[in-house]
Design a protein that fits this description.
The protein has one helix at 186-193, and strands at 24-27, 29-41, 49-62, 66-69, 72-75, 83-92, 112-125, 131-144, 151-156, 159-165, 173-184, 212-225, 229-239, 255-269, 273-276. The protein has 278 residues and is mostly beta strands. Strands 2, 3, 4, 5, 6, 7, 8, 9, 10, 11, 12, 13 and 14 form a 13-stranded antiparallel sheet that branches.
Length: 278
Amino acid sequence: MSDYRRLSLTALLFACCAGHAFAAEKPLWELGAGISALSLPDYRGSDQASVYAIPFPYLIYRGEFLKADRHGIRGTFFGTDRIELNLSLGASLPVNSDDNRARQGMPDLQPTVELGPSLDLNLWRTADRRTRLDLRLPVRTAVTVTGGMDDIGWVFSPRLNLDITDVAGLAGWNMGLLAGPMYGSERNHDYFYTVAPQYATAGRPAFDAKGGYAGSQFMMSVSKRYPKYWLGAFARWDSLKGAAFADSPLVKSENYFAAGVGIAWILGESSTHVEAVE
């Protein structure tokens, strides 16, 4: 899955998390705004990286049928809380090819947005719901968002996700661990890794990227909600070994590492309270 510099909802936008995993009276909604500092490679497979400061929204909504929290944006469509249909979002930053050694002379990479459903299955959880293991199955369509909305294929990244509340006995601290393979369509891989004949050079031979396996990802995140603000951090490592595009001359590293920290301020909350299990 060629999600170069992806700003995934749970990682780089630090999907806003609430406190404990037992039932309690909490505001129907909470709103805020935050800022994150991110260290990101230019794209998966690039050997160049930059540091960015990116704002992000903080949103919690605890409706009866629609919820938005640290687990994502999701609706209650099934008669059990062990199966959820979530909204899966992704985005990416642009790459100026003049600033990237591997892509010099090639078209710039435009910012992209990815959107699609995710079927999430709870495989196991403790009685107090402080620890849970989920299987997440997100499928997203990707489009560029400047110079016209061009369809650049689909991405699929099934993953196991372990969430732990009050990790190591630290009240209010949440930790998430995520791992799984990644896949992308031929059109998606073509956008990032194909070298058309007119852009081939002595050190960059022509390459036609195919769809299929796109490597594996491993991510860890931690966060805590305070009365007036929220703190979070994440680290993500991807392996591109065996990916369908691994032989592309644009792949300069088989390892992708990204990390970031963020802080969000709670600017308002609902006077209506509801019972929530988070």
